[in-house]
Design a protein that fits this description.
This is Gp37 protein. It comes from Alistipes timonensis JC136. The protein is an alpha+beta fold. The protein has one domain (2-142): Phage tail protein-like (STM4215-like, 2-Layer Sandwich). 19% of the residues lie in helices and 35% in strands. It is built from 2 helices and 5 strands. Strands 1-2-3-5-4 form a 5-stranded mixed β-sheet, with helices on one face. Strand 2 (44-58) and strand 3 form a beta hairpin. The chain is elongated. The two termini are 29 Å apart. 16% of the residues are buried.
């Protein structure tokens, strides 16, 4: 199971690096933003596993319904006040969130269902930076070794109406 999660996170990291050049730093989230001097370059995207729920499929197999988070952060360098001369610059992170979503929505590079966004929320940050958390959902099959039988994922299908 952990190999699938690692694959998904690495695929997302690689895809964001290739498709969203505005990101100066893309990494696994290990708490960089909680440091007094965050060990990142801004703007950044930090990836992590949020939650995995399992559904039984029979014969020991499971569907792993997986949520991953993309924490997006940027420095606050410009006032967004009505009278500020370059207030539009303060809203660049909103455009960056849209580019990240365009890159990730329905993205899949492996044996897992295409990602789809389930949540966007602002994260409280200090006065020097602004942070948002995007949550994406995917699913994959997990086999169970019963000793003599094997299981292999041949496809994952997700239908959206």
């Amino acid at each position: 199971m952990m190999d699938e999660i690692t694959t998904i996170l690495l695929d997302v990291q690689d895809h964001l690096g290739k498709t969203v050049p505005e990101l100066a730093y893309v990494d696994k989230d290990w708490g960089q933003l909680s440091l007094e001097k965050p060990a990142v370059k801004f703007p950044c995207a930090l990836l992590d596993l949020k939650d995995v729920s399992f559904t039984q499929t029979g014969n020991g197999g499971q569907v792993a319904d997986t949520q991953i988070t993309v924490t997006v952060a940027n420095l606050r360098l410009t006032s967004s006040s009505l009278t500020a001369p370059k207030k539009e610059d303060a809203y660049r992170i909103i455009g960056l969130l849209a580019k990240i979503h365009t890159a990730l929505h329905m993205f899949s590079a492996g044996d897992y269902a295409p990602l789809f966004r389930t949540r966007l929320r602002k994260i409280v940050a200090d006065s020097s930076r602004e942070c948002y958390e995007l949550t994406y959902q995917t699913a994959y099959m997990v086999g169970f070794d019963t000793g003599g039988s094997t299981a292999k994922v041949t496809s994952v299908k997700l239908e959206l109406n």
